[in-house]
Design goal:
Shape: globular
Oligomer: single chain
Largest sheet: 6 strands, mixed
Strand order of the largest sheet: 2-10-9-4-5-6
Strand content: over 45%
Distance between the termini: 41 Å
């Protein structure tokens, strides 16, 4: 069973930075794309960024140039690690951020609040 857990959220002022992490356990191989999604209050879950198994990255226009997605893998432990470096944060980035893996259910997410 593949499970994931997000961490690293918090409260930050506009213009600040945060780094989200996601640990994905029970993964037998790394040939999957993984990504980040977010859900703002009262809105649907939206796509943020994706990284494929070759390291190619894709971003929503709203975060391009500010966010960076990266990944790592520990084959000895059947674990993947997904990160989202968020810079120049804006109040509209406030949301619960979710890590996504095609074999895992959604996790609880990490709350990111951008406010002065």
């Amino acid at each position: 069973q593949v499970t994931l857990r997000e961490s690293g959220g918090g409260l930050v002022q506009p213009g600040g930075s945060l780094r989200l992490s996601c640990v994905v356990s029970g993964v037998t191989h790394g040939d999957y794309s993984m990504g980040w999604y977010r859900q703002a209050p009262g809105k649907e879950r939206d796509y943020v960024a994706t990284i494929n198994s070759s390291g190619f990255t894709y971003y929503a226009d709203s975060v391009k140039g500010r966010f960076t997605i990266t990944r790592d893998r520990d084959s000895t432990k059947n674990m993947d690690y997904l990160y989202l470096q968020m810079n120049s944060l804006r109040p509209e980035d406030t949301a619960i951020y979710y890590c996504n893996h095609p074999e895992a259910a959604w996790g609880r997410g990490a709350q990111v609040t951008v406010s002065s």
